[in-house]
Amino acid sequence: MNRDKSNDDGAASTEINYRGVRRRPSGKYCAEIRDQAKGGARVWLGTYNTAVEAAWAYDRAAFASRGQLAILNFPENYNLPMTSSHFYTPSSSSSSSHQVFEMECMDDKLMDELLDCDDKKKKKGGK
């Protein structure tokens, strides 16, 4: 989604922000991703001339590391099912009146295991 921002000269410009992409002071775009195997450390993916190129780099890295669970900028390029968990809605870095929450879908077996674990803890604690 596009957001209007003011330039230094006061003119409005439309800029799209993508997941894993930052604009550098030079005007180029850098891409990076967090590696959960390394405690959330940033992994540098490179510097690109356009935000779209940087977003593609992020998508390639996210899909390579997380597969179908990845939240992508362009999920249509990966022939994934059209579910909300695969889509990332670009937004402005400026504050807005709404918040975006990312939710991960868990299968029933995992949810049952988590609930059973909680029940066992309550029984051991005498509650």
UniProtKB/TrEMBL annotation:
List the Gene3D superfamilies.
AP2/ERF domain
Subcellular localization, as worded in the UniProt entry: Nucleus
Q: Which GO BP terms apply?
A: defense response; ethylene-activated signaling pathway
Q: Does the keyword DNA-binding apply?
A: yes
Q: Which GO terms describe its cellular component?
A: nucleus
Main localization (coarse):
nucleus
> Which UniProt keywords are present, listed alphabetically?
DNA-binding, Nucleus, Plant defense, Transcription, Transcription regulation
Q: What SMART domains does the record tag this protein with?
A: AP2
Statement: the UniProt record of this protein carries the keyword Nucleus: yes
Q: Give one GO term, molecular function aspect.
A: DNA-binding transcription factor activity
Instruction: Outline the extent of the AP2/ERF domain.
Output: 17-75
Q: Which domain of life is it from?
A: Eukaryota
Q: What is this protein called?
A: AP2/ERF domain-containing protein
